[in-house]
Specification:
The complex is a heterodimer. Chain A is an alpha/beta fold. In chain A, 33% of the residues lie in helices and 17% in strands. Chain B has helices at 4-33, 80-96, 128-131, 137-154, 185-195; strands at 52-61, 66-75, 110-116, 120-125, 160-165, 183-184. Chain B is elongated and about 100 Å long. The chains are: A alpha/beta, B alpha+beta.
Chain lengths: 252, 198
């Protein structure tokens, strides 16, 4: 079939337009990308201004209060939902970390519903030094720290990281931090347990990521909602995190 | 004046409609008298007498957050799939007994276990099991590891396990533990070791 001249011209214009759009479209925010290499060198400016002595950037801890909105999590009592306990605790932990000289941010600071994928996207975009997902339970006692449990066959190829196994590149660091935090909390004689768990969104996060689950110390579930108990656990955790401050990489 | 052929056709159609209505009414009556059709199919009960075998199941305890091996007797079954189902039903039975250290609701049930190639098991549970499960990372993890580890101990060369609820995929067990993927038995065995009583 022969094309007439105007049709050919229109086709060329369309091809040029599509090419231009393709080249200018930024990467989709949902796609997990491998963390950029810390060894990337920045080019020094030509001017000879005195360079200030390098100071270690403050590590950033991203605290994620699990559940929220219509997804209330475990029912810990008649008026005590997991989503409320985790939010209250996350706010305390943020304050305690800031008072110890660390940067701390919350994924949610209100009763909002976020999917696991949305939480992971927020964490992957903000690139904190450590992501901590906070849960609460009526079973057992003390604090539990979990690192991700990933399938053995990761589908990470080159710079492309599979969404379900995005944590693979940081898993060793996550587990190392988990061990150090556990050892630090053990010194306080507060009940602590360290495990791996298939809990989302840990496996979707490219930076070191842990989940913590707080339980009542006395077996009374109502204790979880009390300010004193939350404050005590928050202080223990914040001390432990501040204690490994030099092991946390700063924001890249 | 209506032509004769049209009148005959109309009369035929009317009688056909009446006949079909009567037939439909009869079918409906028969359906109503034959009892409810949506009865949940009952699983074939395993024989209570006859040869038995000893198997080991992995039982969870909420108070310590640990797993313990326990030896139980089940009817000896030749069919691998039926045997796997029976073992998991006996495990659930332990959790449903009064005073259980990891209580599950009485209506919790393993609907089916499919042993497929290559070395993959698909466990289909009813929704009463996750709905009646205590919500929490450790509580849910104990159930998951107990079920998968029990199956892997009793089904040789099992490599992967997928869990379904009422025949469908479910995001989490009870709000925490991920059910969307396929579990690697080796990984779960390592986790079971971490959770085992010293």
């Amino acid at each position: 079939m022969r094309w007439n001249r105007p049709a050919r011209l229109l086709g060329c214009l369309l091809a040029v337009f599509i090419l231009t759009v393709c080249l200018r479209t930024p990467a989709a925010p949902q796609i997990t990308t491998a963390p950029s290499s810390p060894a990337t060198t920045s080019v020094a400016p030509e001017s000879q201004t005195p360079v200030p002595p390098p100071t270690a950037p403050t590590p950033v801890i991203l605290i994620d209060a699990a559940h929220g909105g219509t997804e209330s999590g475990a029912v810990l009592g008649p008026d005590n939902l997991e989503k409320d306990v985790t939010l209250a605790f996350a706010r305390r932990l943020r304050q305690d970390l800031i008072s110890r000289g660390l940067q701390a941010q919350l994924v949610r600071d209100s009763d909002t519903l976020l999917s696991a994928d949305q939480r992971a996207s927020i964490a992957n975009q903000s690139r904190p030094s450590l992501y901590i997902c906070v849960h609460a339970t009526s079973e057992g006692s003390g604090i539990r720290i979990y690192s991700a449990m990933l399938p053995s066959d990761t589908d990470n190829r080159g710079p492309f990281v599979g969404w379900e196994t995005a944590q693979a590149s940081s898993l060793l660091r996550s587990r190392s931090l988990q061990q150090q935090l556990t050892a630090s909390i053990q010194k306080t004689r507060f009940p602590i347990r360290s495990l791996t768990a298939p809990v989302r969104p840990l496996n979707n996060i490219v930076v070191p990521a842990l989940a913590i689950e707080i339980a009542p110390a006395t077996g009374q579930v109502s204790q979880l909602a009390t300010a004193d108990y939350q404050q005590m656990i928050s202080a223990i955790l914040a001390n432990a995190i501040a204690g490994i401050r030099n092991k946390l990489e700063s924001r890249q | 004046m209506i032509p004769r052929n049209l009148a005959v056709t109309f009369a035929l159609l009317c009688s056909l409609t009446l006949g079909m209505s009567l037939y439909l009414w009869e079918l409906h009556r028969r359906d109503a008298t034959s009892g409810p059709r949506n009865v949940v199919p009952q699983h074939v009960t395993t024989p209570t007498s006859g040869p038995t075998e000893k198997v080991t199941v992995i039982v969870a305890r909420d108070d310590t957050g640990e797993l313990h091996p326990q030896s139980i007797s089940i009817p000896a079954l030749d069919n691998r799939q039926q045997r796997a189902e029976e073992i998991l039903r006996q495990l659930l039975n332990i959790y449903q007994q009064k005073g259980s250290q990891h209580p599950l609701t009485a209506s919790a049930e393993i609907r089916d276990v499919y042993l497929t190639d290559p070395n993959t098991a698909v466990i289909d549970m009813n929704s009463a099991l996750p709905d009646g499960q205590t919500s929490g990372i450790l509580a849910e993890e104990l159930t998951l590891v107990s079920v998968i580890q029990t199956l892997s101990l009793n089904v040789p060369n099992l490599a992967k396990v997928k869990l379904l609820v009422d025949g469908k995929e479910r995001e989490t067990l009870a709000g925490h533990i991920d059910l969307s993927g396929v579990y690697d038995v080796g990984e779960v065995s390592q986790l079971a070791q971490q959770m085992s009583a010293p």
